[in-house]
């Protein structure tokens, strides 16, 4: 009679929860660090128990030494288990790192292909031809402007040519006047030293040797 009430209800499939890869990876990383900390702590306890057992034997306390060694064995067994756990988690870390890297590379390749396709569509050969023609027009216009200003400068220089020649002639005349003045200058009279001055100088030189 279920058809009277609209039939059986369809079971809706539950969608699996979305996995946060990076959050999971962080949990594994944290757990590896915690496990390593526990192993290091147990290793210290094992060494301390061993030393305490030796001290007990030296004191002839055999029962205490045996108890300490049994405790040491328990920690060693625990450490073996933790070492196995750490190895498995480290392998998971390596697997996740590899897969994450593969995923990132794959996504980059897809985006790269899309970018290349987009650039290929934009790089139309007709657009390149238009750009080339405009470039040639700009170059021709720049040449015309350069020729105009260069011609103006040449005209200005030609007008000033006579003034420059007059300036050169004036400079050359001034230099020749300086040379003639030096040639015609009378030589200074030679200075004559008296005999007394020569003797006095010689005496000063002799006294200077005493210093």
From TrEMBL:
Keywords for this entry? Coiled coil, Endosome
Name this polypeptide is given? SNF7 family protein
- State where composition is biased (Acidic residues): 202-211
Annotated region (Disordered), positions in chain: 190-211
Where is it mainly found? other
Q: Which BP terms from GO are recorded? A: late endosome to vacuole transport via multivesicular body sorting pathway; vesicle budding from membrane
**Which residue spans adopt a coiled-coil conformation according to this UniProt entry?**
32-66
Annotated family: Belongs to the SNF7 family.
The family database entries (InterPro entries) matched by this protein are listed as: Snf7_fam
Which superkingdom?
Eukaryota
Which Gene3D superfamilies does its entry note?
ESAT-6-like
**What Gene Ontology terms describe where this protein resides (cellular component)?**
cytoplasmic side of plasma membrane; ESCRT III complex; multivesicular body
Give the subcellular location.
Endosome
Keyword Oxidoreductase found: no
């Amino acid at each position: 009679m279920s058809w009277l009430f609209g039939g059986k209800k369809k079971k809706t499939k539950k969608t699996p929860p979305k996995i946060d890869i990076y959050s999971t990876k962080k949990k594994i990383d944290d757990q590896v660090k915690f496990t390593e900390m526990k192993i290091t702590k147990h290793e210290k306890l094992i060494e301390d128990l061993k030393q305490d057992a030796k001290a007990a034997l030296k004191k002839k306390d055999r029962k205490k030494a045996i108890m300490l060694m049994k405790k040491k064995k328990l920690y060693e067994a625990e450490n073996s288990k933790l070492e196995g756990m750490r190895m498995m988690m480290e392998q998971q870390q390596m697997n996740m790192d590899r897969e994450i890297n593969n995923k990132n590379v794959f996504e980059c390749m897809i985006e790269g292909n899309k970018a290349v396709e987009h650039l290929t569509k934009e790089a139309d050969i007709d657009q390149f031809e238009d750009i080339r023609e405009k470039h040639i027009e700009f170059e021709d216009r720049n040449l015309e402007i350069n020729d105009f200003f260069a011609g103006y400068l040449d005209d200005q220089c030609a007008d000033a040519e006579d003034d420059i020649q007059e300036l050169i002639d004036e400079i050359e005349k001034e230099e020749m006047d300086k040379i003639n003045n030096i040639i015609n200058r009378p030589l200074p009279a030679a200075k004559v030293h008296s005999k007394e001055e020569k003797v006095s100088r010689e005496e000063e030189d002799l006294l200077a040797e005493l210093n």
